[in-house]
Amino acid sequence: ERGHGPYQPHEPGYGLYQPGFSPYDDQIPEPESRMLAIQNAKAYLLKSSTTSGLNLYDHLANMLTKILDEQPTNAVDIIENISKDVKWAQFQKKMDTLRDEHEILPTSEDAEMRKSLFLRANEELEEEIGETPLPNVMETAFYFEQAGIGLSKDESYHIFLALKKLVSAQPIQTCRFWGKILGLEMNYIIAEVQYLETEEEEETEEEEVIGEGGKESGEVEEEDEEKEEDKPPKSTYKPPPVIPREENGTGANKYVYFVCNEPGKPWVKLPPVTPAQIVCARKIKKFFTGRLDAPVVSFPPFPGNEANYLRAQIARISAGTQISPIGFYQFAEKEDEEEEGEGGRDRYEENPDFQPLSVAEMVDSLSTWVHHTQSILKQGRCVWLNPFQKSEEEEEEEEEEEEKAEEPDGPFQEIGPPLLTPLSEDEGIENIPAWTAQASTNLIPQYAVAILQSNRWPGAYAFASGRKFDNIYFGWGHKYSPENHTPTLPPPVQEEYPNGPETTEMSDPTLEEELAFKAAKEAALAADEAEKEEKDTEDDEEEDDD
After folding, report:
1. Which residues contact 271 (CB under 8 A, 6 or more apart)?
2. Which domain holds residue 187?
3. Which of 264-278, 365-379, 385-399, 509-523 has the lowest mean pLDDT?
């Protein structure tokens, strides 16, 4: 028995494959049944798409019209391209102006944006002869390319030109391509720079002036508040002290970072990072959008926008992944003992007598690599600071005043690992080591490059070949966690005030109770007046007797 074909009874086209409807059958079907089947099939073809709004009937008709008009050779081989051309013509912009509007393609916009990178001034010839802080991005990209890490050559060269533009516009002493952090809308290309000493001093002076102005305005507000009358009682709650950020050129703010979304766009300087931002960044996990002014909606609330969150993540990644071969850096011989006692040594210099190790030795043992960036403590600083430590003036004032309550003991001092600590002392993540070392190739070991990959910060890499090494980061800016990220829960709801006779609302009295209360009150007033009259009469009698 023959079936009814691929169509179901409720679908259009049902009945075309019945015995009386096959085009190969000699029997001619009834005209009414055939017309009904044709109408059902046409209705199906006329259904409009929910996404594009087109229907298959008109699309096929336009395709056949285009084929008959142009009559291309081997039309069956290019039927897909014809279909695309017909669809594309449906979405073309209809020009209603006297002149056709020039359509700017995305490739033209990118080329116009990067056009400024290829402009060369005659004044730059003299500067190129001397030393320049511009890093050789293409050389670094070549070494990372041996292990399949990095960007395309075109993008690397565009970043190279963008860094050149940054170095020529800013008074920079050192510059390095830090890496690229991915975003949902746009990405961030990051440059790590160090200003000249004069520029750093000017920045600190400007920040001090801004801080002093804020204090003066605060003092004026306090004076105005004191003049107000009928003040509510002052709260005895003392908020925790605000931990100040580290100064420019030290700790987490040792370097200054510039970012841009694409090579050719203007570089934007990120603000310094504060301990509060680093502490909060450890508790949240957010994807970057690519817009520096975007708000960071999270719990606990982040103190700043995306520019501050980006700066905090850069500080965390740098503190955990900036490494170098052992012996390349050494501590300065002349260093103050006070600095060693406060937070350990934080200055180092390049070792002129450095003897590079072989690639096999650097791959076999993690003790041949060291951290050359200070680690960040739980406090959010690289050097611990006692928040309850007071100045000499405050201590003298407190000695004069009477101290009724005992102050709590100060917090325990945090001590992190010192600089140039070997990677072999890094803690793993459960059963995963903190680092994975490998050679770029096993086929030609004499020309291999040692590559290190961070498992704690996926996307952080380092290479070493002879006296050359570098660090780079390509990723989303998230730290690896074996478990899924669980946001911090909000604090528990506070308990209600305990009910008692003082806080319990009394029931309304009845009319009889109100009348009885008024009568008792009037009686009490009458009794008081009677007592007063008696006292007055007694006093008058005593005066008459005298």
Report:
1. 307, 308, 311
2. 152-207+242-319
3. 385-399
Per-residue confidence (pLDDT) for residue 3, from 0 to 100:
47
Q: Are 327 and 474 within one domain?
A: yes
29 against 441, higher pLDDT? 441
Judge if 175 and 313 occupy the same domain: yes
Mean pLDDT, residues 15-44 taken together: 70
Q: DSSP 3-state assignment of 332?
A: coil
In a domain, 374, yes or no: yes
Question: Alpha helix (H) ranges present in 374-473?
Answer: 392-400
With H, G, I as helix, E, B as strand and everything else as coil, classify residue 330: strand
Q: Are 160 and 176 contained in the same domain?
A: yes
Residues 312 and 327 in one domain: no
CA distance 428 to 87: 55
Q: What is the pLDDT of residues 46-96, one digit of tens each?
A: 888 888 788 899 999 999 999 999 999 888 899 999 998 888 887 766 555
What is the per-residue pLDDT across 154-172, written as a single tens digit (0 to 9) for each?
Answer: 999 999 999 999 999 989 9
Q: Are 323 and 473 in contact (CB under 8 A)?
A: no
Burial classification of residue 483, based on how many CB atoms lie within 10 Å of its CB (0-12 exposed, 13-18 middle, 19 or more buried): exposed
Strand bridging mode 172-181 / 468-475: parallel
Same domain, 282 and 168: yes
Burial 152-177 (b: 16+ CB within 10 A, else e): eeeebbbbbbbbbbbbeebebeebbb
Domain count, the chain: 2
- Asked whether residue 130 is assigned to any structural domain, the reply reads no
Q: Which residue has the tokens 């033209």?
A: 108
Tokens 């100040």 — which residue? Answer: 244
435 in the same domain as 369: yes
Residue 63 counted as domain residue = no
Supply the pTM of this predicted model: 0.69
Q: Give the end of a domain, one of 443, 462, 480.
A: 480
CA distances from 364 to 54, 369, 435, 467, 527 (A): 63, 11, 12, 18, 105
Q: What is the pLDDT of residues 415-471, one digit of tens each?
A: 889 999 999 999 998 889 999 999 999 999 999 999 999 999 999 999 999 999 999
Kindly list the distances between the CA atom of residue 191 and the CA atoms of 385, 458, 472, in Å, as whole numbers in the listed order.
29, 19, 11
Residue 174 lies in a domain: yes
